[in-house]
Design a protein that fits this description.
The complex is a heterodimer of chains A (about 80) and B (about 525). Chain A has about 80 residues and is mainly alpha-helical. Chain A contains four helices and no strands. Chain A has one domain: Non-ribosomal Peptide Synthetase Peptidyl Carrier Protein, Chain A (Orthogonal Bundle), CATH 1.10.1200.10. In chain B, helix 1 crosses helix 2 and helix 6 packs across helix 7. Classes of the chains: A mainly alpha (about 80), B alpha/beta (about 525).
Chain lengths: ~80, ~525
């Protein structure tokens, strides 16, 4: 499975209702997400990529790049 | 205003006092009160000859037609109870309705294809059920003696299509119907000079009671059309041709009309005094667009009603500006004379203060005594002896104007905050690619608790570029966020026809939720983009 960083940025943008999501934008500080949004981003990623994100992993996600790395690791690609 | 004790007395009076006066036209074919009364008596004579006993139910599966009235009132004239049902039901579904009300006789259209009648008769015969058509009643003797019908006798049972469980049969007495007709006449300021045009189904409450019983009550003109909304032009043409002053429809029909009529200026609707928008959530945008398109002012008014209170409960004042609240909800006006509205407060048995949202309670002489053969439902319906629970949420403002916030059971509570699906659904009415949206609350069982899921049927297909859907979702989420200050858990774009609705186009939120949770939307390929 090849999951691109762009794809992850789009996923975050859809969830937050914003067009521009940079790989290193801080999802909460820069993009205005709250903790529930972060949970929803994780839940959408879980469903889309058939993975399970733990509580510990969840709090480590700060940027799209972080989520991308995590998804790649969990999806085993 | 004339005082009648029963619907039959009303029609007999009209037939005697103004025999040749037109009772109504259907597709421009006029029918006089004397013709109508004769037709009613023929059906009644036939029913009595078949052994109909007082209080027996007669199911009427007839569309808008002359026959409908013969069968509907004929059943009552014979001492029975009419049970109109959706004529489009397949035999199986129709027979399930027959079972619910334990009827022995079913009316089908005289024009039914032989095959359909045969199919019904075959199934019916094994259950001792009689299938009749009005044509088959023509030869009945006209001189039968009819039972004495009392004001508190049940005239008909109106089945309400609940989103879950079996439909409930609301029992309406002659007195309920005449009382509610009088309430609506007073509250809507209707006079005998009113000219009604209606395509609404006569087998359902608003089309039947407001659009036919009210005009019969006053001897006002009513021009009926077929219910098909495949084309909306006949509706507008009839308003123009008859110089109609009063028409009524649910919001979706007006939206459909606005979408389909390319040149509204071709129609002169200036005769309209009232275009009632009721029976489903009223959108401010529909009112604005309708009046702008046809150059009207203060003609479209929002109304509120429910079958358990016969039908009409409140309506905005004709000729006055529609009242909106700060959230953009449209007021359904003040209750009609003789109707009292209250809002259930936080504690059981307590009433809410002005502005506070709770279940709408209705106290009215036109309240049904309860559901047919359903004591538990009837008990749950009653708040006290004279007051019923509507199952709808709303509030009354300081001046007693009613605002509807949605259905009690569909309320979404996110992080302690109540959101009404209707508030969300209205956010997207002007997005061209979105046919309509439905919002439901889903709790995935995680920390976020119950959250908002938005499902939108969209115009497009698998060929539509993904970027278009992406932009649509971003717009929907961003608009939601600006309105509520938080975001929905998910927005899913669906293929047309995916969101379940009742046959009168009400969204079925709980069914939609179930379809999603059961992954049926996924499995059936309904999700275009998410």
């Amino acid at each position: 499975m090849s999951i691109t960083l762009d794809e992850i940025c789009t996923l975050i943008g859809l969830q937050l209702g914003i067009q521009e999501v940079g790989a290193n934008h801080h999802i909460q500080a820069n993009l205005g997400a709250d903790s529930v949004d972060l949970v929803n981003i994780a839940a959408t990623a879980e469903e889309k990529y058939q993975i399970e994100i733990s509580e510990t992993d969840l709090v480590s996600i700060k940027t799209a790049a972080d989520l991308h790395q995590l998804v790649l690791r969990l999806a085993g690609s | 205003m004339p005082q009648f004790e029963t619907l039959l007395e009303m029609l007999a009076h009209r037939a005697a006092a103004s025999a040749d006066t037109i009772a109504y036209t259907y597709l421009n074919q006029p029918r006089s009160y004397s013709q109508l009364w004769a037709g009613i008596n023929r059906v009644a004579a036939r029913l009595l000859a078949s052994g109909l006993a007082p209080g027996d139910r007669v199911v009427i599966a007839l569309p808008n037609s002359h026959e409908f009235f013969d069968a509907f009132y004929g059943a009552q004239r014979a001492g029975g109870i009419a049970v109109p049902i959706f004529p489009g039901f397949a035999p199986q579904r129709a027979l399930a309705m027959v079972d619910l009300c334990a009827a022995n006789i079913v009316f089908l259209p005289s024009t039914s294809p032989g095959a359909k009648l045969g199919q019904f008769r075959e199934t019916a015969a094994s259950r001792g059920l009689t299938i009749l058509t009005v044509a088959e009643c023509q030869s009945a003797a006209e001189t039968a003696s009819f039972p004495d019908v009392q004001p508190d006798d049940i005239a008909f049972i109106q089945y309400t299509s609940g989103s879950t469980g079996d439909p409930k049969g609301v029992q309406l007495s002659h007195r309920n119907l005449l009382d509610n007709a009088a309430q609506m006449i007073a509250g809507m300021e209707i006079t005998p000079d009113e000219i009604f045009v209606s395509w609404l189904p006569v087998y359902h409450d608003m089309g039947l009671i407001l659009k036919t019983i009210v005009p019969f009550y006053l001897g006002a003109q009513i021009h009926l059309l077929a219910t098909s909304l495949r084309t909306v032009e006949p509706w507008l043409e009839a308003i123009q041709a008859h110089r109609a002053t009063f028409t009524a429809a649910p919001d979706f029909a007006y939206r459909l009309l606005l979408r389909h009529i390319a040149h509204p200026a071709d129609y002169d609707l200036s005769s309209l005094r009232v275009a009632l928008n009721a029976a489903e959530p009223v959108r401010a945008q529909t009112i604005e667009e309708f009046e702008a398109a046809f150059g009207l002012k203060n003609v479209m008014v929002a109304g509120y009603g429910l079958a358990e209170a016969t039908v009409g409960v409140s309506m905005g004042k004709p000729g006055s500006q529609v009242r909106f609240d700060s959230r953009g909800l449209v007021s359904a006006g003040r209750p009609f004379p003789g109707v009292e509205l209250m809002i259930q407060g936080g504690e059981e048995g307590q009433l809410a203060a002005p502005g506070e949202v709770g279940e709408i309670l209705v106290r009215s002489v036109a309240n049904s005594r309860g559901y047919f053969n359903n004591p538990a439902g009837t008990e749950a319906l009653h708040w006290d002896e004279h007051t019923i629970r509507s199952g709808d949420l709303g509030y009354l403002d300081e001046e007693g104007y009613l605002f509807i916030a949605g259905r009690l059971k569909n309320i979404i509570i996110h992080a302690g905050r109540s959101v009404y699906p209707q508030e969300i659904e209205e956010l997207y009415t002007d997005i061209k690619l979105v046919r309509f949206a439905a919002a439901v609350g889903i709790d995935r069982g995680d920390v976020a608790g119950e959250q908002v899921y938005i499902f939108a049927e969209v115009r497009g297909d698998a060929q539509t570029p993904e970027l278009v859907w992406q932009q649509t979702v971003i717009k929907m989420v961003s608009r939601f966020f600006h309105r509520f200050g938080f975001r929905p858990a998910r927005v899913l774009l669906l293929t047309p026809g995916s969101i379940p609705t009742t046959h009168n186009s009400k969204l079925q939120h709980s069914r939609l939720r179930q379809l999603y949770l059961d992954r049926q939307l996924h499995d059936q390929g309904r999700i275009l983009y998410s």
